[in-house]
Amino acid sequence: MILAVAWVGVRGLLAKRDLEASVSHVETLKSQLTKGDTKGAQRTANELEDSAAGARALTGDPVWALFERTPFIGENLAAVRQVSVIVDDVASNAVRPVAGVLGDVDVDAFKPQDGKIDLQPLVTAQPAVARATSALSDATKAADGIDTTDTVSGVTDAVRHLRTSLASVTEQATVADKVVSLVPGMMGEDGAKQYLVLFQNNAELRAGGGIPGAVALLDVEDGKMSLSQQAAGASFGPYDNPVLPLETETRGLYGSITGEYMQDVTLTPRFDTSAELARQMWKQEHRSRVDGVLSLDPVTLGYILKATGPVKLATGDELTSDNAVQVLLSEAYAKYPDPAVQDLFFASAASAVFTKVSEGGFDPKEFIAALTTGVDEGRVKLWSADKDEQAKLAGTAIAGELPVSDDRSQRFGVYLNDATGAKMDYYLEKSVAVGSEVCRKDGRPTWTVEVTLKSTAPADAATSLPEYVTGGGMFGVSPGAVRTNVAIYAPSSGVYVASSQDGKAASPQTATDGDHPVAQFQTLLSPGKSTTIRVQYLGAAARAKTAVDAVSTPGVHQEVTQPLSTSCESPLD
Questions:
Q1: In terms of pTM, does the model score above 0.85?
Q2: DSSP H helices in 423-513
Q3: Is the dihedral of CA 318, 323, 328, 333 positive or negative?
Q4: DSSP assignment of 125-156
């Protein structure tokens, strides 16, 4: 018996060593993949497989299995064995197949040559990434099934860490699986495709980001890209009626103009709706098909310029990562007061950046980082007219959907639409905070959303800024002031309770958009002034301990959602 105990003890220590080594290898692997060190990642993947297999072997012998039936220590041994099995399965069935194609999927291979990207590495990687994604999904389910009711804290923490890591990696793998399966087809592997590109202008906010100030047609075929047509957003509409039927909720919240002007298609935060409307408008004006719609903004162009370096425009202006936002969203209006010239300037900027990218004049790692940041901040969105492709895009950040709540987080949406009819949102700062407090005997949480807007416009904005920027009072807003519509979307289980603005009771428009309760406010700010809106919702008791979060319209200045401290005594103060 003493020998058996010693046997299990020694093997347990060795298994602990191998599991700790596996964790270290995983961290190293993540770092290497982030840096694009594919050769190093392949070596680390082999080491991970060895350490994981060692831990599994050490915890899988008959003596170990016998001691799993022992009171007090049995539950811990069983959990350690299950962790070892899961880590080994991930190493063998997820890491190994992906490591096998890492050498072919080097980021440098995706630099366009003569405007063409080699799609074959992605096609080659598809089976391995799909297998890895499936293995990670199975591992996540297995980890969730480990019983830690009676395990010691060290084992419990290890299992919790495993679950958290697997959830994160599985989510990333799912996205990677969609990327490698979608990109070849969407880049014209099976035939030519045409995409409408919306260049959103955050200086005049729309729920989806900004007005589509300029649009372009992007032709792709077998990885080769070219811009074939460009047009001003203002050249589309007004149409007598929406170009496509609008949902009752969309019409009620944002008006029929959502489908009557290209510059208003992004009034709704539903990018699929915006994309379909824009596609139909292009079709009516240019009689050409559109296979999908891509949207991005000047802030994203600034990120991309970190990868490409400065670009020279036809006007002689130089656009850099440091000045792109200021030049495109502020200085251009003073330098080029004619709106038609402004449109040409914006088109020139977009074309110059695209040309440099299509010619391969960029750092691939920086470029991927730029697009990733743009997607994460809600600045880059993509929609496909192909139902199968769109189904794969669904649920990803790039799809531009309404916020989705789950067991990990109840998510709100805070969407801003300019009501000034000008370009004053360059000077609008926004902060969002959310909090949750259980104040009722039935256990239902009280959710509070706080939105603060501040105008940073100069005190003499009415006279110092161009009339095109201030609006000149054309839509009933005094020059220099900023009027904004703020729509707050709650999770489907939320029930609107009350709201306030600057400490006084407010009476917002209340509505629904799909399953989401919506409260919409209007604010008016003079230069230097700020306003704070607080909205209170009642959540479901089952979500009392679930974290709360929010996504919001990506403006010129994008702040991370902050936690909000609330009390049951005066939640709206």
A1: yes
A2: 461-464, 467-470
A3: negative
A4: HHHHHHHHHHHHHHHHHHHHT---TT--HHHH
